[in-house]
Specification:
RNA-binding, OB fold (Dihydrolipoamide Acetyltransferase, E2P), Integrase_cat-core, single chain, 347 residues, three-stranded antiparallel sheet, 3 domains, 15 strands, 7 helices
Length: 347
């Protein structure tokens, strides 16, 4: 049992409780939850999603804090006869199977939800069904077959015609989703296999790192000419062996958790020390003000899309400070503003 945390918040849920059967079946259950879930809430999820389908557990292997687990599981174990076993920080490999499943799910979510990150909760049951339908290399059987003695029917490859357009459209969407899911989980398994032969950098909380910029959508006119790396950013939290939460600018509004493969340690040279201190503000009409260097792009705003906002880059500041402004925020950069409107044929 383990948690995948810090996903985009959906219906007050931002985490996945991952349950893996450590017996021969190797089946999985993915349960959406909140990372602040306590032991009582975790126990309720076990009853709701595990007990009603498979009965009592023989034992529980968890990397959660011993105090957290003991709070409810010790009493639950005494009453129900569950033998509790907690893996320690020094023996985290005890739950290696769950960690591998975690990596598989994280890669799947990365591929499938990159553009619409809030859809992760709706797609979990597809990932669970597909995983449990795949033949495991060790047993040469699927988890479904070993658990139930048969293979549940997936979506058919050909559907009967329906006179209801919405049903026809939905079945086609589900079929496509199932095919993509199977392919993505195969890719996930391959990526995990490749990663097992690679050595990744490890970072600590408080360190500064560069973030690879090729997959970031920050409003640059040309991706080819955009910076290869953004930052440096401080590591706010170490979430796992290969995942880190970064302290990003609030205006980015993207999920702040990244794989270590996208991060590079920021190093200062003692002789030629890089200076990322913010420059002093200009004094305009007795008030401190940033100086706009360039207007990058624009977007319509408002209910009728009649209002316009402009993404600006501040002089002597890196791209992490880029900001969307209303026209009123450009009153001291009128020349840039008017030139931009003429160039893009804006009224």
């Amino acid at each position: 049992m383990d948690l995948i945390t810090d996903l985009p918040l959906v219906n007050n849920m931002d985490s996945i409780l991952v349950m893996v059967d450590h017996t021969a079946t190797k089946g999985v259950i993915f349960i959406p939850c909140n990372k602040k879930i306590d032991a009582t809430g975790t126990a309720e999820l076990l009853f709701e999603h595990v007990y009603k389908r498979f009965g009592l557990l023989d034992k529980i292997i968890s990397d959660q804090d011993p105090q957290f687990a003991a709070e409810v599981f010790r009493e639950m174990g005494r009453i129900l006869g569950i033998k509790q076993m907690l893996s320690t920080t020094y023996h985290s490999q005890m739950d290696g199977e769950t960690e591998r499943v975690n990596q598989e799910v994280e890669i799947y979510l990365w591929f499938f939800c990159a553009k619409e990150q809030t859809k992760w909760k709706d797609l979990l049951h597809f990932a669970e069904f597909t995983h449990n339908s795949r033949t495991q290399s060790i047993t040469c059987q699927t988890p479904f077959y070993l658990t139930m003695g048969y293979h549940p029917r997936p979506l058919p490859t050909v559907f009967n015609k329906s006179s209801i357009p919405s049903i026809k459209q939905r079945t086609l969407e589900l079929k496509k989703l199932q095919e993509e899911m199977s392919a993505l989980l195969d890719i996930s398994a391959q990526r995990i296999k490749e990663r097992s032969h690679r050595t990744f950098n490890k970072f600590e909380k408080g360190q500064k790192v560069w973030l690879e910029g090729k997959n970031l959508s920050l409003g640059y006119p040309s991706p080819k000419l955009s910076p290869k790396c953004e930052g440096p950013f401080e590591i706010e939290e170490v979430l796992g062996p290969v995942t880190y939460k970064l302290k990003l600018p609030f205006q980015w509004r993207i999920h702040p958790v990244f794989h270590t493969g996208l991060l590079t340690l920021y190093k200062e040279n003692e002789i030629h020390r890089l200076n990322f201190l913010e420059p002093p503000l200009d004094i305009v009409e007795g008030q401190e003000e940033f100086e706009v260097e360039v207007i990058i792009r624009h977007r319509p705003k408002g209910k009728r899309k009649k209002l316009m906002e402009y993404l600006v880059s501040w002089k002597a500041y890196n791209s992490s400070h880029n900001q969307w402004l209303k026209p009123s925020g450009l009153k001291h950069s009128m020349e840039l503003y008017l030139d931009y409107k003429i160039k893009h044929n804006l009224r």
